[in-house]
Design goal:
Blueprint: E1 3-7, H1 24-34, E2 38-40, H2 47-56, E3 57-59, E4 64-67, E5 87-100, E6 103-113, H3 116-128, E7 140-141, H4 145-155, E8 160-163, H5 183-187, E9 196-198, H6 205-208, E10 218-220, E11 235-239, H7 245-253, E12 272-278, E13 289-291, E14 296-298, H8 300-305, H9 321-328, E15 343-345, H10 349-357, H11 365-377, H12 381-387, H13 390-393, H14 399-410, E16 415-417, E17 426-428, H15 432-443
Helix pairs in contact: 10-11, 10-14, 11-12
């Protein structure tokens, strides 16, 4: 069965705080390195980026595009047996900031369009509504979430809106600082058009399963990459060969309704959304509550005892994702809805190699050499971590690396230090005693 890894939320070099290396050519190259077969264009509202997309991409299937061969770049250290084209889908992120129900809302959304011609219409419509599209690849729009959805649907009914990183405190539909308590509260009568949400780095499917109103909503996961190496750190997984814009959106919409029993009558070529690749939520930047300036990280229970006040400076804590999930949940932990899909939590390969060799840096010569060898034989980072048999890996990787991948696939985490208030957390696959032995082995 043909498996496709997809990252449907990324950025370009025109977005604030993003790497200048995020060019169309480099995104195509790094998608191949990561093993991504499908990626969003990102930032299609930005005039300069949109012009580059029109210049450098060519149609490749219904509603999809690929990089023109004249622009294709290669990495000499990445030498897979075979390479395939990366499909681009028209997708971007926007920020809606507005007043609704006597409260200021700051909500980010991913929007998808069936082709570049439709994107052009969306951009023109947003310009007429006062959107300063040239200011940032992720533009700030002074229109409501509902009005944005209405606008894109009136342009083309095939357009799709997916609320982005839905639990992030500052800029999300359920964010503790400026969000809503339900999708219905945000989109009102247009709620039926919302069939998917993006979970974000600081939450995973089991956390979202605690919200019964999300049972009919597909949980998607994407990187929100601000640099090339972050591509694919979260991803969707599709199976099938009939890749198209309509096929992708239909597969996402119907993901929870799929019949898990495959028989002779099933069209195996039809695209299916079969699950996601996740961050361990503890590693996300907003999993716990906290205060970055004071280096204070607290569990929801600890924050409650302090009445959400920083014990060091006396100011209000940034309430994290876990706390907010607890607040909105109406279901106990460990209950799996009938519509739920499989997921796998990963850490990136260079982080894994650093842990295997007991070093803190991800860019030592040994790790760099091993990284390029492994992604080459695995035909990309995600296929290597997810699919390659461990016995085959034994020909290329150390026992320690193989053990790290084995633990990763089984979800065996020795220690998790949660992220908070914009600070990434840390996931350890090996316990403290094993880490000490590994460092000693490197030294001696």
């Amino acid at each position: 069965m043909n498996r496709i890894y997809a990252d449907l939320h990324i950025h370009s070099r025109y977005a604030r705080a993003c790497s200048p290396q995020l060019t169309v050519e480099n995104i195509d190259l790094w998608c191949r390195i990561k093993g991504l077969g499908l990626v969003a264009t990102g930032d299609f509202t930005h005039p300069k980026w949109f012009a580059e997309l029109k210049e450098k991409l060519e149609p490749h299937g219904e509603g999809l595009y690929r990089l023109k061969s004249t622009y294709r770049r290669y990495e000499p250290r990445f030498t897979p047996v075979a390479e395939t084209d990366v499909h681009f889908i028209c997708g971007t992120e926007v920020a809606c900031i507005y007043r609704h129900n006597d409260q200021t809302r700051r909500v980010h959304h991913c929007i998808f369009a069936p082709n570049l011609e439709t994107v052009d219409k969306i951009n023109k419509a947003l310009n007429t509504r006062g959107g300063k599209l040239a200011a940032d690849g992720r533009p700030i729009l002074g229109i409501s979430s509902k009005d944005l959805l209405k606008l894109i649907l009136e342009i083309d009914s095939r357009c799709v809106l997916v609320p982005a990183h839905i639990w992030t405190p500052w800029f999300a539909i359920f964010g503790s600082k400026s969000g809503y308590n339900s999708i219905q509260e945000c989109f009102e009568d247009l709620t039926p058009h919302i069939f998917a949400v993006e979970t974000g780095l600081s939450s995973d499917p089991p956390m979202n399963w605690r919200i019964s109103s999300l049972d009919g909503i597909t949980l998607t996961s994407h990187s929100d990459a601000h640099s090339l190496p972050n591509l694919g750190r979260e991803a969707d997984i599709f199976e099938g060969s009939e890749l198209s814009y309509n096929g992708i959106m239909t597969a996402i919409k119907n993901a929870g309704q799929q019949n898990e029993i495959v028989d002779e009558k099933v069209n195996l070529n039809k695209l299916r959304f079969i699950g996601t690749i996740e961050f361990f939520p503890d590693e996300g930047r907003y999993h716990f509550d906290g205060h970055r300036e004071c280096k204070i990280s607290l569990s929801p229970e600890q924050s409650s005892k302090l009445k959400n006040i920083c014990p060091k400076c006396g100011r209000e804590l940034t309430i994290g994702v876990l706390n907010r999930v607890n607040e909105l949940s109406d279901r106990a932990k460990n209950i799996k809805p009938a519509t739920s899909l499989p997921y796998t939590s990963l850490i990136e390969l260079d982080k894994l190699l650093a842990q295997a060799y007991g070093v803190s840096g991800r860019h030592t010569k040994k790790i760099t050499n091993d990284y390029w060898q492994l992604v080459s034989i695995g035909r990309g980072e995600l296929p290597l971590l997810m699919d390659m048999p461990l016995e085959k890996l034994g020909q290329y990787a150390s026992e320690r690396t193989i053990e790290a991948i084995r633990r990763l696939r089984l979800g065996q985490v020795a220690e998790a230090i949660p992220g908070y208030d914009g600070v990434y957390g840390t996931i350890h696959l090996f316990n403290s005693e094993e880490r000490i032995k590994s460092k000693q082995a490197v030294l001696f």
